[in-house]
């Protein structure tokens, strides 16, 4: 039996607490990654609804667990968010380190027009 929280859970809670302090009314761009796929969604916490989402499951070109696929997801989620009228978000990386696929997704979303 383990005591306390895992390192991942500690990072996730620390990151979410910091986001709540500086987010204001902006929606958050939440990222989740698994061994094969990466998922991103823009969530409006004030209304409790998902504004836009994208993943490697929907519309991937055979590439799953790599930075190129993550960048494509970042671009798609940014385009969907802009179509829904969202241009400014806060980046919620959860407990994942800002490195590799998560970083590639964030940079692609910034290049596609999301501000964070």
UniProtKB/TrEMBL annotation:
Keywords: Ribonucleoprotein, Ribosomal protein, RNA-binding, rRNA-binding. GO terms for cellular component: cytosolic large ribosomal subunit. One of its GO terms (biological process) is translation. InterPro entries: Ribosomal_L18, Ribosomal_uL18_bac-type, Ribosomal_uL18_bac/plant/anim. The keyword RNA-binding applies. Transmembrane segments: none annotated. It comes from the Bacteria. It holds the Pfam family Ribosomal_L18p. GO terms for molecular function: 5S rRNA binding; structural constituent of ribosome. Gene3D superfamilies: 3.30.420.100. PANTHER family: 39S RIBOSOMAL PROTEIN L18, MITOCHONDRIAL (PTHR12899), LARGE RIBOSOMAL SUBUNIT PROTEIN UL18M (PTHR12899:SF3). This is one of the proteins that bind and probably mediate the attachment of the 5S RNA into the large ribosomal subunit, where it forms part of the central protuberance. NCBIfam families: L18_bact (TIGR00060). HAMAP family: Ribosomal_uL18_B. Belongs to the universal ribosomal protein uL18 family. Part of the 50S ribosomal subunit; part of the 5S rRNA/L5/L18/L25 subcomplex. Contacts the 5S and 23S rRNAs. This is Large ribosomal subunit protein uL18. It comes from Sphingomonas endophytica. The gene is rplR.
């Amino acid at each position: 039996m383990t005591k306390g929280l895992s390192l991942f859970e500690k990072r996730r809670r620390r990151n979410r607490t910091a986001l709540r302090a500086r987010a204001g009314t902006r929606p958050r761009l939440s990222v989740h990654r698994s061994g094969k796929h990466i998922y991103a969604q823009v969530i409006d916490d004030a209304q409790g609804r998902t504004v836009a989402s994208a993943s490697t499951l929907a519309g991937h070109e055979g590439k799953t667990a790599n930075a190129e696929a993550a960048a494509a997801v970042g671009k798609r989620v940014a385009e969907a968010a802009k179509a829904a009228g969202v241009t400014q978000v806060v980046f919620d990386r959860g407990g994942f380190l800002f490195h590799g696929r998560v970083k590639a997704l964030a940079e692609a979303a910034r290049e596609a027009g999301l501000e964070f």
